[in-house]
Amino acid sequence: MITILLNHISLASGRKYRQISSGIQAALAAGSLQPGDRLPPQRELADALGVTLGTVTRAYREIDDLGLVKGEIGRGTFIVRREEEEFTLHAIHNRPDRDTADCIRFDLNFPVPEGTPDLAAMLAELSRQPAMEELLRYQPTAGLTRHRRAAGRWLDRLNLQTGLENIAITTGAQHALFTSLASQLAPGDALAVDSYTYPGIINLAGVLHIRLIPVESDADGMRPDALAKAAARNRLKGVYLIPTMHNPTTVTMSQDRRRELAAVLRRTDLMLVEDDVYGGMEQEARVPIAALIPERSFYLTNLSKTLAPGLRLGFLVVPAGRLSAVERVMAASIWMNPPLTAEIGSRWIDDGTADRVIIIKRLAAEKRMAILAEKLTGQELHFHPGSLHGWLKLPPPWTGETFARQAAALGVQVIPSGNFGTNGLQPVEAVRICIGPPKNEAETARGAGILASILAKPAVRAEPFM
Q1: Furthest C-alpha separation in the chain
Q2: Is-contact 61 108, C-beta < 8 A?
Q3: Number of structural domains the chain divides into
Q4: How many whole angstroms separate alpha carbon 141 and alpha carbon 381?
Q5: Is there a domain that residue 146 lies in?
Q6: Average pLDDT per run of 10 along the chain, which is 466 residues long?
Q7: Eight-state DSSP code of residue 196
Q8: Is the Cβ–Cβ distance between 37 and 46 less than 8 Å?
Q9: Angle subtended by helix axes 16-30 and 42-49, to nearest 10
Q10: HSE (CB half, 13 Å, CA atoms) of 65?
């Protein structure tokens, strides 16, 4: 690899770091470097070129800014597949034409439109209330007492009983996740995750410089024995789990598996971060792992997957004595959750709106998923009753990126498995299909039919491009 790079770098002109950057780009253009190739460690390349480490670091930073490489903590710097980059959740979510493009969207994971609560009516109700200016003032970082009480009632619904002193109101579950990790882990600490996991934790790990350690799973979720081995080998500090309607695989753990994992966590003295944003969509909520080991658990949920994603209201339950550490991180990031959104969410919880809406949305989601399953009969589609997404495992020689590209060419957007792989691992090729974004059941059926038609034909590999 170094010999190949030296040949291309020697032909480039300009300042030293620019020669290195240009040489790497030339090697890519010539095909000498391929997507997935690992670049030499910076110090090793610096020694071979006779330049300083800072020069190579600057060159690597430049090609990273161009989107040509991706650094992975503990593994190195890798050439990215531009095919993958085009279909990252970040790129899809922030496309300028996202809401105007003529495309059937199965991309983002949010509730179906049916039954969405009446925001206009709620705002009108608030306008008639006295002393609403309170919501425009600074409030305690963890939230107003009445908002935390409402959160506690919502948590009761999810089989997690706790005191107000352990509850913080956050700006969505992603903020709760960030707060949990930033308050408890230091750069370089190791966190166990599933081989395929929520992209938000992958992104956070990069920002916070946390090492993600993939742990084997089976049909019931993360294996307790594999977690115990990973703890012994990697000096783990904790584990991140989505026990209900796992994103993206939809696996939902049995109560036995939850108890087994709780026992391992207690025995190995590990922290748990439990993501239960989908728990409210189950007809009967299961007992969270955090309820079994509250002394070491950070439990997070929200109203984004059940009521409305734009509300940005999350609830974080922390172990006894840990709230002050969490509040410090919250204060450093947003100071406090906007009281207005917490007031709206709390009122919907207290007046029964949230419960009524969930029933409507769960039934609508089940109808849409049934449509998807019927159209994809004969394919390996995994889903759970009430889930907002399905996990379609692809037959060879399909890859998630190639399938997503062909679907996009036909006007359907799905998310390939590369977005969910931990540390670049991809045990299977698949796509995630979210049933919330389509406008109605007819659009769901039309999009599912297009996906089925693609699988009915032989796979055609699209060549990666640079």
Answers
A1: 74
A2: no
A3: 3
A4: 43
A5: yes
A6: 77 81 77 80 90 91 75 77 58 66 88 95 92 89 96 97 96 97 96 95 92 94 97 96 98 98 98 96 94 98 94 96 96 93 97 96 97 98 96 91 90 92 74 96 98 87 38
A7: B
A8: no
A9: 110
A10: 7
Structural domain contains residue 129: no
Which pLDDT belongs to residue 466? 30
- Asked if 192 and 302 sit in the same domain, the reply is yes
What are the C-alpha distances in Å from 459 to residues 393, 396, 406, 454? 14, 8, 9, 8
Question: In angstroms, rounded to a whole number, what is the distance separating the alpha carbons of residues 169 and 177?
Answer: 12
Report the amino acid identity of residue 187: P
Q: What pLDDT was estimated at residue 341?
A: 95
> Please, is 328 exposed, middle or buried when counting C-beta atoms within 10 Å of its C-beta (0-12, 13-18, 19+)?
middle
Within a domain: 465: no
Beta strands, E only, 69-195: 69-72, 76-79, 104-105, 167-170, 190-194
Question: Cα separations (Å) of 123 from 116, 136, 296, 340, 361?
Answer: 15, 14, 39, 10, 22
Distance of CA 54 to the CA centre of its chain: 33
Q: DSSP readout, 236-305? A: EEEEEE--SS-TTT-----HHHHHHHHHHHHHHT-EEEEE-TTGGGSSSPPPPHHHH-GGGEEEEEESTT
Which of 306, 336, 351 is the last residue before a domain boundary? 351
Task: Tokens for 255, please give them.
Answer: 């109560």
- pLDDT for the residue numbered 54: 92
- Beta carbons of 210 and 191 less than 8 angstroms apart: yes
Q: Token pair for residue 456?
A: 């009915």
Strand partners of residue 221: 218
